[in-house]
Hints:
Layout: H1 2-33, H2 38-41, E1 48-52, E2 55-63, E3 71-79, H3 88-91, E4 92-95, E5 101-102, E6 106-108, E7 115-122, E8 133-139, E9 142-147
Antiparallel strand pairs: 1-2, 2-3, 3-7, 4-5, 4-8, 6-7, 8-9
Amino acid sequence: MKKTVTIIILAVAFIAGFLIFYRPQQNQNNQTSNQPSRQENTQKWETKTDDQASVNIVVTPTDLSQQSPEWKFDIGMNTHSVELNQDMTQVAVLVGDDNKEYKPTKWEGPTGGHHREGILSFAPIAPYPQHPTLIIKGIGDVDRTFSWTLNQ
């Protein structure tokens, strides 16, 4: 008898806890469904990978919007044989539709090692390009090119 009462109390407590924690999430979802979320308004850009000369580089734009004060690229570099100690603000350029090269404004990430990940930032290009290209020069003695097509 005591086992049955304990099981019933635990079941009621579980259901009550579920209802208490589920209800605020449901209300929050209902409130935000009427307003577009920031994530819905941001475009998702394709991740590009270059795997040459024993160095794997993965680049994903995180912000290339026309309204953004900075354009940002998430860059990951991995190797087991090459020292990744390059100054990213010196070896990377962003190229617009007019083939003009733009230097990065900053690198937020480590300065060396065999595994580096960080954010490379640029001032936005004007006029807004349809096909920006990020070039990273000389890592593993190879120049790497990453291109995207943007919607205006």
